[in-house]
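INFO  loader      accepted 1 record
INFO  loader      residues=287
INFO  predictor   begin
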Amino acid sequence: MQALTWIDTHAHLDAAEFGGQGSAIAARARAAGVVCGVIPAVERSQFAVVQELARACGWGYALGIHPLYVDRAQDADLMALRQAVTQALADPLFVGIGEIGLDFFVPGLDRQRQQEFYAAQLRIARDAGLPVILHVRKSQDALLAGLRRAGFGAGRPAGIAHAFNGSAQQAQQFIDLGFALGFGGALTFERALNIRRLLTAVPASVPVLETDAPDIPPVWLYRPRNAPDDAAVAPPQPNSPEQLPRIGAVLAALRGWTPQQAAAQTTANAVRALPRLTTVLAAATRA
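INFO  predictor   done
INFO  writer      dumping tokens
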């Protein structure tokens, strides 16, 4: 039987939780069937780190300033991002702008500054003709407004709304602008009713798989096998890309697909959302 090909469209292999072992984690994921993925940057100091790690792993990468890091970012970081993007356009592993967006869930964040950095990074993406990887947390409507102001849609590269958990109406607006929606460990929880309803309702061309490693662990990293649903174990184990095929199997069951169909469809969706990922995938499958 032909091996399944999975893509993790969002994994922070540079995170401190991985202790500099991102390459080894990617190798374990590959052994599990995850041929490649995307490492999004979160701040200026990580731009070079994710580039080097992507080369070591044969993964794609994105450059951006995460909304949770905006409060400590400098205005000059936006110019540095624009320069880094210009240089990265010649790199076949570079796939887009991210992780950017808005976070209206965490208290105490400066929303105005988030909006300024979001708008500036959308302009960088627009000017370079690149898709974006969006952080979406209690901010769906504001994100959509920013995308429209920046001219997204109308055939322009869109990207991925990462870890999407908005309403069906909000989901449709992202889809209408050309976005894929990211689904990961959260869909493995039976009580994640909204996420599961969205997953089963959207067109087949919309969902992409992601882990957000080391975050958003699937249910089995919270509880031992066969434990009751309310027998939570704290703290959960860190998530990792090697969990993606098992997450994909849950997605397949919810959609009524075979694992083979889920792997093929979500891979095709990822390449559509991030067109430069085509080169990354081709190189990874030849390796």
